[in-house]
Give the backbone structure.
Amino acid sequence: MEGRANGVADDSSISPFTGAELALADTVILLMKVMSMHGIIDSDAIEMVFSDLEDRYRAQNLAGATAMAAYLRRHAADADHGTLIRVQAAAEKSGDI
């Protein structure tokens, strides 16, 4: 998530959401990134799931749900390669890999 100075992503699409909704969305994003870094889920699959949800919500005229699915799709599918490298190095050092 680019531009995070205060814990909230710098993204104009988030304006309709409350702080609680964004906190929950960012928690989901963090969990998905951790699972992706550990090879549990694939970032392409994350993209596909949220894209599908976005299309479904749009077809049902659920603007808020569509915007949240788009927010999650954009931010959850992005790999954090810097963190992944640090996690892998620490795991290799400890013998977990």
Summary: The radius of gyration is 15 Å. Helices lie at 19-37, 43-59, 63-76, 81-94. Confidence is low (pLDDT under 50) at residues 1-9. Residues 15-94 form one domain.
